[in-house]
Batch of 3 targets.
Target 1
Amino acid sequence: MKAEIITIGTEILIGSILNTNGRFLSQKLSDLGVHVNYQISLRDDFNELVEQINESINRSDLVFLCGGLGPTEDDLTKDALAHVLNKEIVIDPNEYDHLIAFFNKIDRKMSENNIRQARVIKDSKILHNDWGIAPGEVVEYQNKKVFLFPGPPKEFEPMVTKYLAGNIGEKNDILIKSLNVVGVGEAATEDRIRKLHIEDSEISINTFAHFSETEIKIIAEGDDKSSLKIKMDNIISILYKEFGNNIYAEDNVTSPEALVNLLIEKDLKISFAESITGGLLTSKITAIPNASKILKASYITYSNKAKIKDLNVSNDTLIEYGAVSSNTAVEMAKGLYKKGDCDIAISLTGEAGPTPSEQEIGKTFICFNYGNKLEVKECDFKGDRREIQERASKYVISHLLLKLN
């Protein structure tokens, strides 16, 4: 089943907002075994919308129109689709009542143009919006399906989650599994998989890089679900034999979540001393439920003064070797561990840029202190400031998963 996603809004094309809807919907469709062949962003232009909708319907089974369902005159998605399908647009009484109730609830006068959001294409299936005003819709046309979803992510994401699977239909049985790998790299992961020769006409395997992690996505697609499951289980077994402890989790479990769960399982406590990452690493851990069971302390020692005061780093070390050095990283990790109440103390210090002060941009020193057994890593991360900080944080999480798994 082939799909394409059309995100609508001039604000996307001029960079005023980030198009997160396309990514979210692509992930959901991929998980359902639907192949997304195109993602397109368009301005709020009636003629361009009509032209693109015609082209998309001709070449795809499922077409998703995201955005352009608001109350203003430049919200033209519904009008363009109705024009293509030669369908009438009508006011839905239930959606009109919902609209009135919404404005009464927030004690605000409804503008006349808000009534546009109660309009629907005649004979469409209405997807009621519990998170906003404008409903979604599904329209069937020439054995194809066209979906309309509102653009704001706070409405779009829950509506996709609620309505997508039950409305796309099925042409065959599909099984999907993801294995998440660290410490190998996408190119090496892909090369090792191809050498196993485990794909066939019903099984496809692809890899996707996520900084220091790689997702292996296995899709089994055919007419016999029980036969597909046997194949899928066999392939998963082969991949576990090939990659072993490099597989840290399955499906939608993130690496921070996997690390928190692993530390809880092993009853280990952890603390961080962050300079280059400025608290980013800690925020990744605290975003996970039950992080309080494993995270004991976190220090952002961005300045030399903070390194000396909070972690007892020697001023002589800072003068002789610099703040961005293995020596400073070691003293940071030692000072952190001496504060007590943790099994693992980790320090990071480096150059995030864009202007170097002591080392080349991306140079980072990370010290892992396992009960005064020290392990120092010297890394050279590429990218801009944000990417370097992200890569440093992900590196720590990946390294711990490999070390402790």
Target 2
Amino acid sequence: MLSEIDKSDPIALHEQVASQIRRAIADGEAGPGERLPLARDLAAVLGVNRNTVLRALHMLRDEGLLEFRRGQGIKVTGTRQKSDLLAQVHELVATARRNGYRKSELIEMIEAVKG
């Protein structure tokens, strides 16, 4: 499901971890209701610190892709479609930042789109 993180990549490590988990959800490797391995196990597989993994997991929880339950671990709650959409949103935000657009400007552009 996951491969080692590229520490020379300019993208933050926790972002890389989150992206790999998003991709696993999008590819159907981790579906709704499935439990993820423990953060320390994920960290060992990815070759990063446990806190880096925890930061990524909290980010994905805030996006609605994961759910934390005491005694039950971390479960996938998001769907493949939501994961795909979130990946596109992250790409859009990164592109906007690279091109000098502020968040408010990006929101205005999205709201102007008729759909």
Target 3
Amino acid sequence: MKSIFKKLITAILIAEARLVIRKYQPHVIAITGSVGKTSTKDAIYASLVQHLSVRKSEKSFNSEIGLPLTILGRPNAWSNPLRWIENIIDGLSLILFRAPYPKWLVLEIGADRPGDIRNVARWLPIDIAVITRLPEVPVHVEYFSSPEEVAEEKASIITALKKGGTLIIYADDDRTLSLAARAPEDARTITFGQSNNATVRGARTDVLCTDGPHVSPVGMEADIIAGDARAHAHIVGSVGAHTLLPLIASAAVGVALDIPLPQIIASFESNYVPPAGRMRVVSGIHDSTLIDDSYNASPAAVTAAIETLGSLCASGRKIAVFGDMLELGKYSVDEHRKLGILAAQHAQILVTVGFRARGIAEAALASGMPESQILQFEDAQQAGEALIPLVEEGDVVLIKGSQSMRMERTTFALMRDPQQAPILLVRQEEEWGRR
């Protein structure tokens, strides 16, 4: 019954969203990819909000039901039927009566299953399509026949571009960049990344660190270059060179809209708050620093996270806490072992959570990490509680795993101020608390 109700609600909301798009005709910026969609969506919104009338997808509203909710401007009603009916009534009101509506929508579009993006592309006209990185082994690949099929699904967003629209595409790997050839002849193509061939690129990237006897990371800085324009930018609250890519993508959107680069950077720095669970810097117990990357995990994102840990300033030890990477299908064993090899290179202590993550521990041990420095647990909360007496002043603790592993529970156990959890951590809603 729940499944039938959900399908019915979804169908009604999509129908309403289509009618709202047809009535109000907002300009649409759509973001897809396998890495960094939510951060990119938030960065684009932050860069435009001082210049345009704009609405963005909340949190990670990128599914078949999250997308129409954003278009209608309605919240997730979770398991409350009355609130879903209220959402439908409010959507109908938008259609029947004239109401204030944003001129621009910044929408995150995901693909859990084949056809998810193709179905959206049939009814959503897009002014600017942004495609982030499509790694060799993406998340959700378990539900596709191959990584190539995932890339094809993401690429279908290009078919929704309006005449004269703009395609903004990640330039730092050939797999993603090759999709630029599919842009319509009348479309403008802008590339972004950290490579020299990107239209909009980041340069002189560095970690921002605290001063004093106990050094710890607090953010990132870089120069953003677009043609002859150059501006220096800071991100406070998240770390890793890859966390700068959303900023660079937002600068590319600014170029597409002819907004001067310094104005884009100023708006970004005034309005951007790093999304929870994405390399977010959180104060930890015993004057430690937590790098909370607990939203989800794919091989590419985990690789970037562990390499970032190795590069960070720290007066103490570097501790990696990894939960299972799920939805990898036949790639699961190899990808967990690859992570174990990297962990042995970049961390002094390794903590694993879950059955699949045992492969991380085994590979780290085989790569020379001492057995005494490897801890294994069955669930995230247990791991967090065990780490409380082990974490020391100056330590930097990276925490990452797939959504279902609930690695935010490890972060919560190690936070200096747990009362900040609703603001800083993912999945803090009451509905998640019951799962």
